Amino acid sequence: MDKHAKLKFILTLLVVLVSFGALYIAQGTMNSFYIRVLNLAAIYAILALSLNLILGFTGMFSLGHAGFMCIGSYVAGILTMSPASKEIIYFMEPIHPLLANVQWPILPAILLGGIIAALFGFMIGFPALRLRDDYLAIATLGFAEIIRIVVTNVIPITNGALGLKNIPSVDSLLVYWGCAIVTLIVLMRIINSSWGYAFKAIRDNEIAAQAMGINIFKHKLLSFTIGAFFAGIAGALMAFLITSIDPTMYRFTFTFQILLIVVLGGMGSLSGSVVAAVIFSILMEVLRFVEQPMNLLGLEISGIPGMRMVIFSLGLLLIILFYRRGLMGTNEFNWNWVLNRLGIKTSHQGKRGEAN
Amino acid sequence: MSPDIFLQNVANSITLGSLYALIAIGYTMVYGIIRLINFAHADLLMVAAYIAFYGMLVFTLPWYISFAIAIVLTTLLGVTIERVAYRPLRSAPRISVLISAIGVSFLLQNLGIVALGARPKPFPRPDDLVWNIQLGNVSFLSLTILIPVVTIILLLMVTFMVKKTKMGIAMRAVSRDFETSSLMAVNVNKVIGATFAVGSALAAIGGIMWSMQYPQVDPLMGLFPGLKCFIAAVMGGIGSIPGAMIGGFILGICEVMLVAFMPELSGYRDAFAFVVLILILLFRPGGILGENVVEKV
Fold first, then answer.
1. Separation of alpha carbons A186 and A17, rounded Å
2. Cα Rg for chain A, rounded, in angstroms?
3. From the list B106, B230, B297, which residue is nearest A313 (CB)?
4. CB under 8 Å to A40, separation ≥6 — which residues?
5. Residue A22 and which of A96, A137, A344, B247 are 20 to 30 A apart at CA?
């Protein structure tokens, strides 16, 4: 038994409370630019966490995340736009009458975005998860592209290639990071439940897992659907953050960015994903300077647009070639490690892959 | 639909099918030998097209010299990619190699955007290669004949190489059994390098012909053709060269005909290939000519 369980629980609770407190204070004091970057980081964190559940914990190489995100964004966008702006924006073809006068509050719209994405995840997973490795990758990528192409073409619902504008803007850190923290906690609970053990067993050796009586298909589908759900949530949040969306945003190259975050954080580490997401979004902003004209030792260098993504793709390549574990490998942040460092002996000395 | 327009569509579909077939061979050879979807293959099209573009416009070289330079440089690039990004991961899990391939592709696209600008540029068509042919009421470009002819010649060459030459036999041996063939004194790394060289050269030729047929180059131009050619390779049975040809032609013909007969579905044109892919993977994962392999413990 872990005699420090109570202490750890209190510490966890404290961290959660402190982070909410910090968010509350930050909301009041930081300027809107920083808040926007942090909100983006939260969205990336949710995306990376959910992809990590599928890729890092269950070992399924899915490249369909942009598609699920697309669904979440559109569901949330359509549900929350005001009827007046819908009338203006859908000028190519009027919006479907069923949707014309709907206007939901933010939170239910986010939730429904997730649920519909999960529904699609379930329907796609049903046929696709019989495939493995690269075949699964290409099939899920295909499904994501199909989603995007359908969204581009059903104009009465999605307004086609013109996209949606005037989606109500939400800039509250509490909403974005609240969702991210809830995602983290839920996924942590899942990873440490019997489901999570089954996922990891499937990742490590599918045939052995099957021999141990794990229902492979059921667990894969479960992991995939949960991943799709959170990707949908992140998509909905993205719609509220940038307030105008169009289908080209959700190309599969976007999935590559999320993949980069997951690999950077370590495939199989939830805390790694969060850390990497924050690093990624901050670097995205910090590295903006390489795209702007600068003056280096009297030498005028004109900015090179797109240079940031070169740096990131090079980073992805270097990590996978030389540092495949990523920042955290399969380790998690855990209190045992912290307590050991503080000189408090715990029963097990910071074992691998153990959360809390 | 009038017979003229129908003939026009037939011509278009055969041209597109040939291009798909040519590019699909690179995918199928690489997959056959190291079980990897070489995502970077798609971007080699773009690289070759741009080198040819710059050769002709900026360095004002004759088209045949710029095409030759483009093919050679692209081949070198393909081999270098294998050497740098795939070879160190030979014993790593498959997912890592796949991520590495995605990384290379992502890098090439973004380098393309940085170095060449994101805006599409018109590709010059050399007058020696492209002219109009008038046949009754049907008028078509010489490319409609040129592309299938070049494709068929190259396909015959590759088939001959794989079936008859020593390197081809070594390739087949490595794709059948990696370890045993290395025990049989086959230099596996050299064989894999050669496979990448052949695949990249075909991708380069495909890319140049692609940009003559659809005369425009942009850094992301390889993305969709690449994916569709991979789908063609899967359709035909991955690892099989005749399979890749059949898959390429079927996909090209179906795509053009779908739009020709059902113009209202033309927005879904790009989705069509993916639907085909998913159906194939679900009902006949081995493809048309492939064998269905059950994974053993």
1. 17
2. 21
3. B106
4. A241, A281, A284
5. A344
Amino acid identity, position A44: Y
Helix B94-116 with A307-322: angle, nearest 10 deg: 160
Q: Which of A42-57 are b and which e, b meaning 16 or more Cβ less than 10 Å from the residue's Cβ? A: bbbbbbbbbbbbbbbb
Q: What is the Cα A37 distance to its own chain's centre?
A: 15
A341-355 mean pLDDT: 55
Q: How far apart are CA B5 and CA A239, in angstroms?
A: 44
B278 CB neighbours in chain A (<8 A) are: 127-128, 139, 142-143
Which residues in chain A have Cβ-Cβ distances shorter than 8 Å to B277? 138-139, 142
CB contact under 8 A, A131 and B281: yes
pLDDT tens digits for range A280-298: 999 888 888 777 776 666 6
Structure tokens at A27: 């909301």
| Lookup result for tokens 């239910």 | A108
Where do the domains of chain A lie? 5-291+306-341
On whether the CB atoms of residues A126 and A119 are closer than 8 A, the answer is no
Tell if the CB–CB gap between B104 and A133 is shorter than 8 Å. no
Contact B95/A59, CB-based, under 8 Å? yes
Q: Cα separation of A344 and A335, whole Å?
A: 11
* Contact status, residue A58 vs residue A198, Cβ threshold 8 Å: no
A138 touches chain B (CB under 8 A): yes
Total H helices, total E strands in chain B:
11, 4
Q: Does B107 touch chain A (CB under 8 A)?
A: yes
Question: Which of B131, B117, B108, B111 minimizes the C-alpha distance to B217?
Answer: B117
In angstroms, rounded to a whole number, what is the distance separating the alpha carbons of residues A110 and A178? 12
Interface probe with B: pick from A120, A132, A134, most Cβ of B within 10 Å: A134
Q: What count of CB pairs under 8 Å joins A to B?
A: 113
Pair type for strands B132-135 and B138-141: antiparallel
Phi and psi, residue A265, nearest 5°:
-75, -25
From chain A, the residues in CB contact with B96 under 8 A are: 320, 324
Band of the pLDDT at A356, cuts 50, 70, 90? Answer: very low
Contact B271 A150 (CB under 8 A): yes
Any residues with CB less than 8 A from the CB of B149 and at least 6 apart, and which? none
Residue A192 has pLDDT above 50, yes or no: yes
Cβ proximity of B51 and B66 under 8 Å = yes
CB contact under 8 A, A133 and B267: no
User: Rounded to a whole number, what is the distance in Å from the CA of B184 to chain A's nearest CA?
Assistant: 29
Largest CA distance in chain B: 62
Considering only the beta carbons, identify the residue of A131, A141, A310 that sits closest to B110.
Answer: A310
Q: Are B218 and B121 in contact (CB under 8 A)?
A: yes
- Averages of pLDDT over runs of 10 residues in chain B (297 residues) are 82 91 91 88 93 90 92 96 92 87 92 86 85 78 88 92 91 86 89 94 94 90 89 87 90 90 84 86 77 50
Specify the DSSP class assigned to residue A96: P
B208 close to B14: Cβ distance less than 8 angstroms: no
- How far is residue A304 CA from its own chain's centroid? 28
Residues B166-195: b if buried by 16+ CB within 10 A, e if exposed: ebbbbbbbbbeebeebeeeebebeebbbbb
How many other β-carbons are positioned within 10 Å of the β-carbon of residue B248? 31
Domain edges within chain B = 3-283
